[in-house]
Specification:
The structure is a single chain. 34% of the residues lie in helices and 25% in strands. The protein is an alpha/beta fold. A 5-stranded mixed sheet has the order 4-3-5-6-9, with helices on one face. A two-stranded antiparallel ribbon has the order 1-2. A two-stranded antiparallel ribbon has the order 7-8. A hairpin with a 2-residue loop joins strand 3 and strand 4. The chain is globular and about 60 Å long. The chain starts with a helix and ends in a 7-residue tail after the last helix.
């Protein structure tokens, strides 16, 4: 649900684009990355495409085949690549990641040998740390190689006093933090994003259309 809300919020704030060679360039879609987990175990990264246009059912259609791939023995081929990277010096890994990021993001090339598709990290990255107990107020930084313009964090649930229907009640709540690229995102656009996400969660039927 949060992926859909973010995609639509970024579109409404006119942030459907990316920062390339010093300029903000509009793109055809808003891509949102988030970790896929099953029974509390992270399986791998999932990037939803056209997130600003699709509904909950369409998001599920995108997600299901990706989860199936992740579950196939956690991919022996992927494990082999990770072991190969583990044997490389840190500065070599940094160079490889930087080059792969440039090719994927700036030149929009698919790197099949590394299973990296164009704009691999998406417009926005959602970090879900709800499985880590008692972390209620944290944020994830922007990282250069990911090239995304927003990093958002979904924190653990916590019971708090809230006003509901004019009464003070104890409800489960969670905080969502956002760090954005100040070269692109203005305070006004941050306000639009916050309002749009809030509007979707106050009107759940919006996720179905």
């Amino acid at each position: 649900l949060l992926m859909l809300a973010w995609g639509r919020a970024l579109k409404k704030a006119s942030l459907d684009g990316k920062f390339i060679f010093g300029d903000f360039v509009s793109t055809d879609d808003v891509a949102v990355m988030a970790p896929v987990d099953s029974a509390g175990r992270i399986l791998g990264p999932f990037v939803s495409r056209d997130t600003e246009k699709i509904c909950l059912y369409q998001l599920r259609e995108q997600l299901e085949p990706k989860v199936a791939i992740f579950r196939i023995a956690k991919s022996k081929e992927a494990k082999k690549r990770l072991r190969a990277l583990a044997d490389l010096p840190g500065f070599v890994i940094d160079i490889v990641v930087t080059i792969a990021s440039f090719l994927s993001y700036n030149l929009e090339l698919n790197i099949k040998s590394l299973t990296i598709s164009k704009d691999f990290f998406g417009t926005c990255i959602l970090s879900n740390i709800k499985e880590f107990k008692e972390i209620y107020d944290s944020s994830a930084p922007l990282v250069n190689f990911a090239r995304n313009i927003i990093s958002a964090t979904l924190n653990s649930e916590k019971e708090r006093l809230v006003v509901k229907s004019g009464q003070i009640q104890v409800c489960k709540t969670f905080l969502i933090s956002m760090i954005g690229d100040s070269r692109i995102i203005s305070p006004e656009q941050q306000g639009v994003i916050t309002s749009e996400i809030k509007r979707h969660f106050e009107n759940p039927s919006l996720f179905l259309s």
